[in-house]
Each structure stands twice: as structure tokens, then as C-alpha cells.
């Protein structure tokens, strides 16, 4: 279930939910006098677009679009390592969308356990694994950019889209 601030979007309002992420950054490539590229970066943040369709209105009028809210996403991100001990780079959900462990064995993903200690996931060792991944659903402290909605009378469904950017 997607949670935005104190609003939980229930299944009947978001049964066809989608999540997409976009990296936001203030960066550019500078060039030295011989043409060598030098990356200049000041910050990196995450943008998220949430959308869904449902049979009920979504309740999005209760969101204060001028305030900072926590967006509890249902779209998994992942970070990988050759080690089975991996630090998750941002705040993540610990409810029904808790982190999951995966190991790569012969180019096949194999599920493994994930034991959490703060931001650090220790994944169960799998024989023959060449890489480990920890999948997590982020909680993004965000400002809401847009809230768009539409109603389709022919199918009696509501559609909604929210765009947010990490603080």
C-alpha cells in the first residue's frame, strides 16, 4: 500500500498502482584544457512518480502540498555488492515491504534471507553466488510537485498521478 504522509491509499482507490523513479542531480562535465572530462556534482536526490487507478476516489485532497511528507513507496530499488553485507543508502520500509535478499548464481536470481541491523543488511550466503542484491522500498521525505486526477465515466474508475521530489 502506498502511504503519503498520513494518507494510506486503499486498494479500491489504487488497485493498479505504478511507481517510477528518476535521479535528480546538479552535475555537469567540465573539461580541462586538454579535453579530459571532470565530473562536477553538488547534490543528488530522487524523484518519484506514483500513479494508480481505482473504483473509489483517492483521498488526495488531505495531502498538504506545501509541506514536507514521507512517501512510502511500493516500488523496490536495489543495491548490489560482491559481499553479502550491504548498506542500504536511504531510509526504507520495514512493514510488508521490508528489504529482501537476492543472490546471483549462474546469472539467475536466488532468494536469500536478509537480516537487518539499522541500514546494514546481512544476506544469507549462497554457494556459487557471484553477487548479492538487497531490494528495498524507500521512504522518501518529499515535496509534492503535482497531483493530477481524472474520472472515466465509461469505466467508472478514478485515475491519479503524484510527482514528488526528495527534500
How would you sum up this structure, described in words?
- By secondary structure, the protein is an all-beta fold.
- It folds into 2 domains: 1-75 and 139-167, Elongation Factor Tu (Ef-tu), domain 3, CATH 2.40.30; 76-136, no CATH class.
- The protein has no helices and 14 strands.
- The strands form 3 sheets. The protein has a 7-stranded antiparallel beta sheet, with no helix packed on it. Strands 6-12-8-9 form a 4-stranded antiparallel beta sheet, with no helix packed on it.
- Strand 10 (114-117) and strand 11 (120-123) form a beta hairpin.
The gyration radius over C-alpha positions equals 19 Å
Give helix % range. Answer: under 10%
Estimated structural class: mainly beta
Basic shape:
globular
- Helix-strand sequence: EEEEEEEEEEEEEE
Number of domains as seen in the coordinates: 2
Sheet with most strands: 7 strands, antiparallel
Count the helices. How many? 0
Distance between the termini: 22 Å
* DSSP strand content: over 45%
In short:
With 167 residues, the protein is an all-beta fold. The chain is 0% helix and 58% strand.
Amino acid at each position: 500500500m502506498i502511504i503519503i504522509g498520513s494518507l494510506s491509499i486503499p486498494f479500491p482507490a489504487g488497485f493498479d498502482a505504478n511507481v517510477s523513479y528518476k535521479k535528480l542531480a546538479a552535475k555537469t562535465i567540465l573539461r580541462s584544457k586538454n579535453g579530459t572530462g571532470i565530473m562536477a556534482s553538488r547534490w543528488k536526490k530522487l524523484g518519484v512518480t506514483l500513479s494508480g487507478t481505482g473504483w473509489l476516489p483517492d483521498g488526495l485532497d488531505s495531502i498538504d502540498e506545501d509541506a514536507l511528507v514521507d512517501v512510502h513507496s511500493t516500488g523496490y530499488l536495489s543495491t548490489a555488492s560482491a559481499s553479502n553485507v550491504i548498506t542500504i543508502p536511504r531510509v526504507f520500509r520495514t512493514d510488508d515491504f521490508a528489504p529482501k535478499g537476492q543472490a546471483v548464481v549462474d546469472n539467475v536470481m536466488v532468494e536469500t534471507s536478509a537480516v537487518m541491523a539499522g541500514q546494514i543488511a546481512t544476506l544469507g550466503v549462497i554457494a556459487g553466488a557471484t553477487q548479492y542484491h538487497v531490494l528495498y522500498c524507500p521512504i522518501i521525505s518529499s515535496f509534492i510537485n503535482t497531483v493530477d486526477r481524472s474520472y472515466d465515466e465509461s469505466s467508472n474508475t478514478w485515475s491519479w498521478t503524484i510527482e514528488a521530489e526528495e527534500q
